[in-house]
Amino acid sequence: MRFRGKVYEMIRSGVDKGLKLHFTLVDPEKIENLKEFSNALRKVVDAGTDAILVGGSLQVYVDDVERIVKLVEEFNVPSILFPGNPMGLARNADAILFISLLNSDDPYYIVGAHVTAAPLIKRIGLEVLPTGYIVVGNANTSVSVIGKARPLPYDKPGIGVAYALAAKFLGMKFVYLEAGSGAPQPVPPYFVEKVKKAIDDTILIVGGGIRDYSKALEIVNAGADIIVTGTVVEEKIDDAIKIISAIKKK
Ligand SMILES: CC(C)=CCC/C(C)=C/CC/C(C)=C/CC/C(C)=C/COP(=O)(O)OP(=O)(O)O
Ligand SMILES: O=P(O)(O)OC[C@@H](O)CO
Ligand SMILES: [Mg+2]
Questions:
Q1: Helix-helix angle 189-199:157-169, to 10 degrees
Q2: What are the residues facing 95 on neighbouring strands?
Q3: Which ligand 1 atom lies nearest to the CA of residue 96?
Q4: Using 50, 70 and 90 to split pLDDT, how confident is the model at 192?
Q5: Which is the most buried residue in 31, 186, 193, 249, by most CB within 10 A?
Q6: Ligand 1 within 6 A of 14 CB?
Q7: Using one digit for the tens of pLDDT, what is the confidence trace for 176-190?
Q8: Does the annotation flag 170 for ligand binding?
């Protein structure tokens, strides 16, 4: 909880200095061995990852989330909850990525989950990071299916711009373009570029399907401020390290 209340400022000041940031996504459902997990954390932190996102699409025991956050506390990086439902509200985290899935067909994912979670978030005292979450691409990913998204086609960046601007005008501090965890193709750089040009200083997060450093670099060069990787950390940690190192050299 050491970073509570400082997370937005840490991100903002990095972005304002022109740095590119990397967040590592950890899905509590996938962690079986805490020792192995801690070793992986050490590697991504040493490589320079800027925060650990903790969450997934499915319901989890809050104890499991809290256990993971506790391990993250041993390293010098903030823990940010990234829950797919209100069950993931760990008391010991620094902040919560308060995502509204703007292109969901179900109001629950736009504002419903948020209403049920808000009083508890206040009670816990989590720092809230208001985020317009936009699902892009044609893959049937967990977030798309569970979140009842109507994903934006890759060849319609203008619609991405419209959603992202609406998020900015609603006062959201972050726009997150999401291809979905494990997506075969990440959000294309030309899509990222159009959205970033439109939202200007609003912080742009891009994730889903980023598996190699050259793609990650193309996406940051197109204007992403923050890259999120999850699957590559679970499956090929050495490639994850290469991605983080490449982004941090920018
Ligand atoms: C504000 C609160 C309390 C909740 C938000 C509720 C919303 C809007 C959810 C959006 C839809 C959703 C299911 C988001 C999950 C995002 C996420 C962390 C995805 C990671 O996906 P994985 O669970 O790793 O998928 P795989 O297992 O397929 O890799
Ligand atoms: O697992 P990957 O494909 O890296 O996706 C990360 C994240 O954007 C999913 O929410
Ligand atoms: Mg995943």
A1: 30
A2: 80, 127
A3: 1
A4: very high
A5: 186
A6: no
A7: 999 999 999 999 999
A8: no
DSSP per-residue letters across 126-153: -EEEEEEEEEBSS---HHHHHTTB-PBP
**Is the separation of the CB atoms in 142 and 104 below 8 Å?**
no
**Euclidean distance between CA atoms 164 and 175, whole angstroms:** 6
Q: Is the CB of 148 under 6 A from ligand 1?
A: no
One-letter amino acid identity for 72?
V
Give the start-to-end residue ranges of the domains of the chain.
Answer: 7-248
Task: From the CA of 100, give the closest atom in ligand 1.
Answer: 8
CA distances (Å), origin 190, targets 46, 95, 160, 198, 219? 31, 31, 11, 13, 9
One-letter amino acid of 234 = E
Minimum-distance ligand 1 atom for the alpha carbon of 109: 8
Q: For 7-248, CATH number?
A: 3.20.20.390
Instruction: State the average pLDDT over residues 198-202.
Output: 98
* Total residue length of the chain: 250
Beta-carbon-side half-sphere exposure of residue 215 (alpha carbons within 13 Å): 18
Residue 208 CA to ligand 2 center (angstroms) comes to: 4
Q: β-strands 95-101, 79-81: how paired?
A: parallel
